[in-house]
Amino acid sequence: MNLTMELDRRAWVVQVMGLPVSVHLRGPEVHTDAVAARVERVFAELGEVDAVFSTYRPESVLGRLGGALPDPATAEPVVREVVEFCELARARTGGWFDARLLPLPGGGTGFDPSGLVKGWAVERAARHLADLPEHDLCLNAGGDVLLRTAPGRPAWRVGVEDPDHPERMLDVIEPAGGAVATSGTARRGAHILDPRAGRPAAAVRSVTVVGPELLWADVYATAAAARGTDALDWLATLDGYEALLVEAAGRVRATPNWPGSRPAAPARAG
User: Fold this and answer.
1) What are the residue ranges spanned by the domains of the chain?
2) Long-range CB contacts (< 8 A, 24+ apart) of 251-254?
3) How many Cβ atoms sit within 10 Å of the Cβ of residue 181?
4) Which residues of 214-223 are buried (b: 16+ CB within 10 A; e: fewer)?
5) 158 and 177 in contact (C-beta within 8 Å)?
6) pTM for the whole thing?
7) SS3 for 256?
8) Per-residue pLDDT averaged across 97-105, rounded?
9) How far apart are CA 203 and CA 246, in angstroms?
10) Poorest-pLDDT segment among 163-177, 214-228, 255-269
11) What is the third-level CATH fold of 3-254?
């Protein structure tokens, strides 16, 4: 008997922040107006975040700054929070995630926290659905996924795309909760900058990171894609996070406790 099929399900999809965002819920109240109103608040908050942080909208807060780093003394609280998280991300990744000097849509380089904002915003917006204890949540923002499953319920199944053949899955994982984030060149080309070389990173096709928080799973995946093929050794040291990495040459490797069926990367000799 498939318990997943017995649960009431509902999905909503909205284009926001320049990407499709979907909310999938399983539970007894998914068809009520009260739950639908909560989901609408999720999308509304993501739209408000985009109005502040989009580097593609000249009228946004960051658009008006034109790549300049916001002044913590005058910036609004959410902007200060993101700037602080970006600094913490730079420290945690040894500089491989650095939002200060990134290519801007209008040309030139400057402050662009987009690699962190999506995960941060999704986690913030998901609080509107936090007190629905009898409901399971899958919030998917352009491939970065936030999951919650009630005790005793079947886990969500999340497929990891083959970056060279998107119609195929490299692996399928079933986390009961937490986050899954992927960075790489498959969808947007070589858009991730190697901050040390000052040029696009191309040694890694994709990195998928699984862990408790979407903000950090997304940051770590982006940093690993920038770092290159030796990033898996670093990812293996991160408490609570596991990863699957696809090199540009096609080799697929995973950290020791990757929750899927892919074998872990072999230990380095010497």
Assistant:
1) 3-254
2) 252/170
3) 29
4) bbbbbbbbbb
5) no
6) 0.93
7) coil
8) 90
9) 9
10) 255-269
11) T-fold (3.10.520)
